[in-house]
Amino acid sequence: MQIVILKDATEVARYGADLFVAQLKKQPASTLGLATGSTPVALYQNLIEKNQQGDISFSQVTSFNLDEYLGLDGSHPQSYRFFMNEQLFDHIDIAKERTHVPPGDAQDPIAACQEYEARILAAGGIDIQLLGIGRNGHIGFNEPSSGLTSRTRVKTLTKATIDDNARFFSEDEYQPHLSITMGIGTILDAKKVVLLATGENKAAAIKATVEGPLTASCPASALQMHRDAVIVIDEAAASELA
Ligand code: F6R
Description:
It is a single chain. By secondary structure, this protein is an alpha/beta fold. It has a single domain (2-234), classed as Rossmann fold. It contains 7 helices and 10 strands. GO terms for molecular function: glucosamine-6-phosphate deaminase activity; identical protein binding.
């Protein structure tokens, strides 16, 4: 695990974006693993700017997102497909048909999970996977107690995650309690993993991720087993490290 500690969220986003830029310059037909949530937004902004300046192209890229709420289709404003279109895909030269987000409206979610895994495999695997981290140490929607070798599957969200994400839903809006998420094993198969975290409220999760022990109680600690995992954090998120 490589730990990069930077001053603030702006520097974290720039550093993370540069890793994606380097990957795209080295291999324009890369397969990218992408995340939602508030943390990657500034990184996506960086990538949009670089794309619009002609510095990088996504025209040969394939992408796979980590997760999606089960029960929301892609036109729902809180769906992760909608988020990705708004925050990234609509502003870059990516072919939408090569962008993949788990189908939140799948009639047969279990079959859809197997198909998602098969598509990742058919694309040659993920070259670089972006991650955020939950306060409880989750990556994707792999909540504490998730199997460390798990594959894409349906997961129930914990109360902590539902409460953390309630800020995105209005009071009378249905908030899903189920998701489809890549498994920890799926994430560990990516050739490179880049986890971003900023702010003091992530400090405990970062300490558990970096200093261990390796445990399903902190799913992100599984990244200790990865050969090329980079943890990019600001000083606040690093504040509990020994
Ligand atoms: C999102 C995802 C989640 C988030 C995590 C942190 O696709 O998989 O694991 O990365 O919940 O969310 P933020 O960045 O909003 O703190």
